[in-house]
Amino acid sequence: MTLDLQDRVALITGASRGIGYAIAKALQEHGARVVLLARDEDALKSAAATLPSPGPDHVLTLVADVTDTESVRNAVAQAHSWLGRLDIVVNSAGPQLTPAELTETPTDTLAEYLDAKLLGFHRVASAALPLLSDSGSGRIINIAGATALTLVPNAGVTGITNAAVLAFNNYLASEAAKKNVLVNAVSPGMTLTEGWTTRHEAMGKAQGKTAEDVRNGITAATGIRIGRWADTAEVANAVVFLASDQSSYITGSVLEVDGGISKAVL
């Protein structure tokens, strides 16, 4: 068995930037045809143009909002009809972390996070499962986050949302097994996306430090055992593994790609 994904079709939500884009790039590098889904059409076009194989036979862009059920259904149907098959779905779309204490966070904010991520994942999976290949190549991969597994200060809203995603992942794996579709999650830790880079620069400017100083401080405070933040490609590599035939006996699992930030003993 190899990581070869030749001619398989993968739909990636939140694919215009960050981890979602890195996943689309890695899947394409291993032979998959990729469907990029996000809300911003210009960002999607820019992302598609920078993929290793940007041509129309190798990449399709779809504008859709994962908080809108009809928008999701239409997009998933288009993804399937593009080449007449759908093998892999990666749920990556979700709001960025906004640090705040739970008791100071409006209830509406928690509802918005759950709608965009947990319910968004549910909308996509519900639309995709009937269309996914049942030949053994069918995969649903959910991007959760280390805040579901380890306490990070002022990340309660994100942690609750990600924990709900992990429960969703396990239940969905049980149901999808009846169609020979594997469902797993990847739980990234602190990952250096464009959004975090910008935030570190702003924090550094306010504190009279460099962005790297800020990042190193967060690394030390959160106890990342490897001692650095992840590159988005490192998260994407885990998704490639779960999308490939090498993961043929794995379902309902959570692959932690967090540099050792999670420290559960059991």
UniProtKB/TrEMBL annotation:
Keywords: Oxidoreductase. Residues 8-169 form the Ketoreductase domain. It comes from the Bacteria. GO terms for molecular function: oxidoreductase activity, acting on the CH-OH group of donors, NAD or NADP as acceptor. Coiled coil: none annotated. Signal peptide: none annotated. Its EC number is 1.-.-.-. Pfam families: adh_short_C2 (PF13561). Belongs to the short-chain dehydrogenases/reductases (SDR) family. PANTHER family: SHORT-CHAIN DEHYDROGENASES/REDUCTASES FAMILY MEMBER. This is Putative oxidoreductase. It comes from Mycolicibacterium chlorophenolicum.
